[in-house]
Amino acid sequence: MDIDWIRNLCLSFPQTTEKIQWGEVLVFKVGGKIHALTVLQPARTWLTFKVSPENFGELTERPGIIPAPYLARAKWVALETKDALPSDELALLLRESYDMVVAKLPRKTREALAAGKPAARRKSRKKPAAKPLSRKLRRKRKKPSR
Known about the structure:
This protein has helices at 3-11, 53-60, 87-104, 107-114, 135-140, and strands at residues 16-21, 25-30, 33-39, 47-50, 65-67, 76-79. By secondary structure, it is of the alpha+beta class. The chain has one domain (3-121): Aspartate Aminotransferase, domain 1. It has a 6-stranded antiparallel beta sheet. The longest helix is centred in the middle third of the chain and has 18 residues, at 87-104. It is elongated. The model is unreliable at 120-124 (pLDDT under 50).
C-alpha cells in the first residue's frame, strides 16, 4: 500500500479530483470538498480521512491511528503508519469518507455529480450597489431636527 494505491483508489470514486495544496499534501475532493489527504513527503501522518462517529472512537483506539490534527472535532482520523489498517478495510473506510462528504453537499451539487457534470459554482447573491443620489434629491432631503 503506497501513495499510488491511495491515488488510484480515490480517483476511482465518481467525480473525485486531486490537487496539491499546502506545499506537499495531495488532496482528494468531490464537489469542492475534501474527503482524503495524503502527504507526498515523509511526515508524522501519511493519510487523513473522514470517518463516522461510531468508527472514530473504535479506530483511534488502535495503534498507529490518531485523531487527525486540526480535523478531529469533525471526526477525521490520521494514519501514522502504512500498515495501521489492512488494505481492504482502508478501501472501505475511504469509500465511506467519500460517501459522507457527498451526502453533505448541497442538493444541486449532488444532482450535478450524479449526472456526471462538474459541480457548478454558486453565483454571488450580492445586491447591486446603490446609485448615488442626484444633486436635486440631495438638496431636497431634510436634515433631522435635534
